[in-house]
Amino acid sequence: MTEEEQAALKIQTIRRGSKARLAYRDARDEEARRQWIEFYVQTGNYDEARELGWDGGEDPAPVARAESDVTTGPIAGPTEREKAARLLQAHARGSSARLAYPQAS
């Protein structure tokens, strides 16, 4: 492979990586926006939900949760408390793992 071909391949690789990171960021931001809209609608804060693009029509589609049996209100019993604790622990482990893992550039 010539030096020019290697340089072209490197440029193409960088561009593909950049496009993939941009697509991931857009998808992540859209998912976060949907989650905030759902939260604001569930808590009755419709002004905040509208600022994020909610049109005031139907309730937004519920966002899938890791453990759907976990309640967002007061914890009713020991099983819900345990599920909530496991969910929080999983989020904390995931967050610390992402912080420890060097980001690709």
Structure description:
There is one protein chain. This protein has 105 residues and is mainly alpha-helical. It has two domains: 1-64; 66-105. The chain contains three helices and no strands. It has helices at 3-42, 46-51, 78-100. The longest helix is centred in the first third of the chain and has 40 residues, at 3-42. The two termini are 25 Å apart. The mean pLDDT is 80.
Relevant terms:
105 residues, mainly alpha, 2 domains, 66% helix, 0% strand
- What is the tally of beta strands? 0
Tell me the fraction of residues in β-strands, as a range.
Answer: under 5%
Oligomer description = single chain
**Average pLDDT reading:** 80
Total separate domains: 2
- Overall geometry comes to flat
Q: In terms of topology, how is this protein built?
A:
Layout: H1 3-42, H2 46-51, H3 78-100
Outline of the structure:
With 105 residues, the protein is mostly helical.
